[in-house]
Amino acid sequence: MCEAFEDYSRNKPHRYAPEVCKDMHAIVKQYTGSADPYAEVKMRDIQIALSLEDELSKALMDAMDPIVTALKIAATGNVMDSAIYSGRYIESFLKEELDMPFAICDDVPFKKELEKAKRILIIGDNAGEAVFDKILARHLSADHEVIYAVRAEAIINDVTMMDALCVGMDNFATIVSTGCGAPGAVMETCSEEFLTLFHGADIVISKGQGNYEALSDASRSIF
Fold it and tell me: What pLDDT score was predicted for residue 8?
């Protein structure tokens, strides 16, 4: 904590919260001696999410509006924070969330864009959430090329290449790195490969608070 405070006292010009987080967790990695201090938390979350996969698939199969339900499943994965919900509560919480309508729903413009889209980029957030994202990717991949972007390195409980492969995302999407090691796709530090995909995709779906903070000023439309 002292080192973090000392770092902040230098008034480093952070543009986004994910940049602050990256600097703070560099100190965490140093003191834990681990490149992935949250590895156990991520694996636990992934296993819990995988145990719900059949139920999620059934919810999509029974849906009156499959695309909205697939999007809702992916969104539900985002609010399933491991710091709040333990395995005991997740199943009842899951049903409650899937029954709940979106507070804000841009399904009409999304469906219009989907009709003419060929390539869809999904920018992932946390590791357990990737199982929920896989349900969406599987649904979209029937008629579209799907690309799933992950963090360039382990940061908090966010999804990395290894985590995405662990949940089987590669069965339905091409997995790429953003090239950025912050918990959010900070454009200035993303790779040229990712930036080309980001600007060239017909639809971009961004997951999570960190990506929202980093991409709020992006020059293209994002769902």
Answer: 79
Concatenating the DSSP letter of every residue in 148-181 gives EEEBSS--TTB-BHHHHHHTTGGGTSEEEE-S--
Tell me, what amino acid is at 167?
Answer: V
**CA-CA distance, 148 to 130, in Å (whole number)?**
9
Least confident of 50-64, 80-94, 104-118, 122-136: 80-94
Alpha carbons 223 and 206: distance in angstroms, whole number: 6
The pLDDT, as a whole number, for residue 170 is 98
In the prediction, which pLDDT does 78 show? 85
C-alpha to C-alpha distance for 108 and 131, rounded to whole angstroms: 25
- Examine the pLDDT at 57 and tell me if it is beyond 60: yes
Number of H helices, E strands in the chain: 11, 4
What does the alpha-carbon distance between residue 172 and residue 44 come to, in Å, rounded to a whole number?
23
Q: Which two tokens stand for residue 129?
A: 């959430």
Residue 30 phi, psi (nearest 5): -65, -45
3-state secondary structure of 196: helix
In the block, which residue shows the tokens 């959430």? 129
pTM: 0.93
Single-letter amino acid, residue 177: S
- 147 neighbors 173 (Cβ within 8 angstroms): yes
